[in-house]
Amino acid sequence: MDPNQSLICPLFKSAEDFGETSLAILKLKFVSKVADISSSLVSRLLLVISILFFVLFVNIALALWAGELLGKDYYGFLCLAFLYAIIGMVILLKHKLIKDRANNSIITLLLN
User: Fold this and answer.
1) Under 8 Å CB-to-CB from 68, ≥6 apart: which residues?
2) How far is Cα of residue 79 from the mean position of the Cα atoms in its chain?
3) Rounded-to-integer distance, Cα 21 and Cα 25, Å
4) Please, which residues have CB within 8 angstroms of residue 15's CB and are 6 or more apart in sequence?
């Protein structure tokens, strides 16, 4: 057996082991990142759902109260509908800013 060949075989074996270990570490980091992002999204989704229910019931109460002040119940709902139409237009105008912040947040979560 050639002496150079006896030195090269363990070197290739070590390189192969290193490659497999590096791949295993990358897989574990990926799984950890996905789990972190998923759990973050689930907790935020639950928070958003609870806030939406709160806002929904407050809006119904406000609409009924405003309708009582204006004389007809549906007037209160119309006033709130127009208010939300105005808020929607403002959000539409600020779409790029909101999108950029969301992108930066996702990138930060992925890279940390």
Assistant:
1) 76
2) 32
3) 6
4) none
